[in-house]
Amino acid sequence: MSADQTYVISQPPRRYALGATCVAFNEVGHVLITRRRSPERWELPGGLVDPGEAFPDAAARETYEETGVHVKVHGLVGVYQHPSRGILAGIFIGTLVSGEPRPTAESSAAEWTEVEDALTRLHPLYRPRLKDALAARTSVTLRVHEGTEVLSLFQAADI
Predict the structure, then answer these.
(1) 3-state SS class at 11
(2) Can you list the positions of beta strands (E) in 26-86?
(3) Which is nearest to 130 in space by CA: 23, 26, 54?
(4) Among 75, 93, 99, 143, which is least packed by CB within 10 angstroms?
(5) Contact at 8 Å (CB) between 21 and 40?
(6) Are 95 and 26 in contact, with CB atoms under 8 Å apart?
């Protein structure tokens, strides 16, 4: 699609919800994936940001809620717009801190898998997000701040 093309949405959302997804890796480079209960499909862990919650904290929380794995979020890969559903989703890179993947109330399965296997099994919506995370050599700057005081700065260099 060229830069001058536009998307036409039959009924644009009145407002957008903010989502956060985590592309998490373990110490051997496997990626964490989860099988949703409904709709039943393999995805990267993620969900909506709670009111007042920090964007990267939502990615870590959703990862734990869906997989039982605690991660450290290192950086932002990008922001993905889903116009028909009214969602803006931040895709974050994270690494394993603790925990073993397990089924949860939200997921019927969760597991570490090789990247190529994940690219085969993931729902098509999530494949480009994983590919973008793999291609990211540096992170988009994410500054958490109130006014002029920077509270934190995430960088992919820690990965």
Answers:
(1) coil
(2) 31-36, 42-43, 46-48, 70-82
(3) 23
(4) 143
(5) no
(6) yes
Query: Within a 10 A sphere around the Cβ of 51, how many other Cβ atoms?
Result: 6
* pLDDT: which is higher, 77 or 1: 77
Helix (H, G, I), strand (E, B) or coil at 22: strand
Instruction: Kindly tell me if the per-residue pLDDT of 126 is higher than 60.
Output: yes
pLDDT-derived band of residue 136, with 50, 70 and 90 as boundaries?
A: confident
- Sorted by where each starts, the structural domains of the chain and their CATH numbers stand as 17-158 (3.90.79.10)
Helix (H, G, I), strand (E, B) or coil at 148: coil
Q: Look at 30-34, 51-55, 151-155 and tell me which has the smallest mean pLDDT.
A: 151-155
Bond into 39 cis (ω within 30): yes
- For residue 117, the surrounding DSSP H or E stretch is helix 115-121
Cα separation, 108 vs 86, in Å, equals 26
The CA-based angle 82-87-92, given to 5 degrees, is: 90
Identify the three-state secondary structure at position 63.
helix
Whether the Cβ atoms of residue 117 and residue 42 lie closer than 8 Å to each other: no
DSSP at 62: H
